[in-house]
Amino acid sequence: MIGWTALVLDHLKPVRVSLLVLAIATVVVVSVDQAAELFLIALWTDPSAGRYLGLLASAALTGLASWYAARNAYRLRYPRWPALQDARAAPLRDWIPRVLGAAVPLLVCIGYVVALAKLPHGPCGGDNPCVQRSWRAFGLLLESMALIAFFLIRRRVWLAMSRRMPALRAPGARPSDENRVWRVRDLGRTPCSIYAGVIALNILLTIVIAWRPEALDGIGPLAIVLISAGFLCISGSLLCMVGDRRGMPLLSAMLLLSASLHWLHLNDNHRVRQYPSMSTHQQPSPPPPDTRVSFDAYLDGWLDDRCAHASPCPVILVSAEGGGIRGAAWTALVLARLTAAVEPAGRTGAEPLFARYLLAGSGVSGGSLGLATYVSLLAQPPATDAGTLEARAQTLLGHDFLAPTLANAFFVDFTQRWLPGAWLDDRSRALTRAWESAARQQGLDAFAQPFAALYAPATSGAAPVVPALFFNSTTVVEGKRFIQHPFQPIATPQRQPWTAGLDGSSWLDPRVPLSEVVLNSARFTYISPAGTLETRASNPPVPNRLQLVDGGYFENSGATTLLEVMRLVRTRARARGQSLRFIVIHISNDPQMTDFVDRHDPRHPLPLYTTSCPPAPGGVRDRVVGEAIAPVQALLETRSARGEYARVQLLRALQPDDADPARGDMLWHFRLCPGDYPIPMGWTISAPVFTELDRQLRQQYPLAVMGQALRQQLTPTSP
């Protein structure tokens, strides 16, 4: 006689796809902060009733799909698993499909509860949003119970209908009482039609999303994940039934096929776009003649225009750390607020004073997106009103960039993994399209246009208008920094400014879009895949092909590149006989980071200042990991340590003057502290996150004092 352990294990095998989907979802719900933010947005802060109804509908459909797939899986006979015919296990065959179906909306509700318990979220009184979140959570619980009730009473309803309608076949008293069949097609016309319809709908949705990645944006990222899980349960279960019935490991064979295509690079659709019309599955065409300005010419024009009558001349430099949408929003907010604080009262229609003396910015990942957003708004003619920068940046970055990315990942990119040859745009293109679309709604074409177009002089000899941007990526094979900028290659055989770094302009086409260079800096684990960069230049660099990932893999601060830019600027100014003083704005966003500035007096923020975050609760704990994961843990932690080292080196390169701060270098570190609301890194952000960012900036930084000090230092004096 078969033991109960074997009975249970054999009964889990036919429904392994649904079980695997639920297991992965459970791990994500419990351990991923970005997922917690999605639950809080969907059930609490999102004002859209339509998106909530979409969440309810997608949870119900996914639950029904999981139940239906498991129910039909148990109707087949499997010669390999005689336990599935054991009468003692009939309750398992009756209840496992029901539990799988009801677990879907219940898991969404549990995810919300975990998010509330795990992350700080501020007070909740009797106002409408708090009432709304309670009703929405209750709606998911009610849906889970409704599914259980449906699974229990559907046979009774069907039996009553069959008595009134003789054409209907009377069902068995329990699911396990139904006739077992040997082939999938013997399940009946209705099940086969449902399977065919679901597969056809899956194909149709994949085609629609490949054409318009934003097609499902209106229902939200959680609903998109649920819908894709429902399709996977149905199609994966069908494959398992066909294969298991014949003893053929179809699912394993498909996984082996996908892995083989990946290892042999036969379906790489993750190419870096070298120009706006290029797709991620295309080979690039040869680049046109390089008409980009040189950095030396840009720098000469900047110094001539800003520093002709100032000694020492103030030069503002910005480094913005990586951190997904958190880093982007914080970077844009800090720069926009400083721009408004420095601007003299009543001064309108002119170039903002802070932006005028901002020479360069170095960004990583989300920091790159924040810098690109700020500079694109500055570049929009006519001269941007400093007071509107913050609101427009918040509107641009407040879009849901995660929904189209997930839709492409689970439908289009997932399909491409099984196809030989590259045919479809990848999920990173969906992300850049979302950035471009959000920018266009603000009247900005810069994200979709060549990066270098921002720096093309309006007339010959015209002074630079916008700050120089340096976006940091990392090469996979070489493990080096990949510095992207809009100029001709700065590194030459005679000058090598980048330590352990490659000059991106040697590989990038002059037409490469701004959105693509930001993406190359933000290709973080799996959400944005590693990009294959190929050049068709007549005199290609060595190596001719690179693979790029997030700049934070090397170091996440952007300070290393900013320090090297500072050295270039200082050397050029010295050759021109000009004296400079640097005002460095370093923007980080990790509440757990170790600070490198020890000046915290808001009454005297010059020449150095940062806020003092409260220490984390509890003492420092000794932590030892096992020998198996120790090497991996060390590799991950050295990334953070390299960022800490780079920040300190940047600080040590400055020459502040405590006696007369206006004559020496300055550094302000704008950091985030643990606050009243979670600030995750994913590519979607909620209104309470913007509120928390605003609260920290207002309460922890003396912006009025800072603005007045910079205004006095930057206001030009008459020659």
From TrEMBL:
InterPro entries: Acyl_Trfase/lysoPLipase
TM region positions: 20-44, 50-70, 95-115, 135-153, 192-212, 218-241, 248-266
Keywords (A to Z) from UniProt: Membrane, Transmembrane, Transmembrane helix
Coiled coil: none
Protein name: PNPLA domain-containing protein
Signal peptide coordinates: none
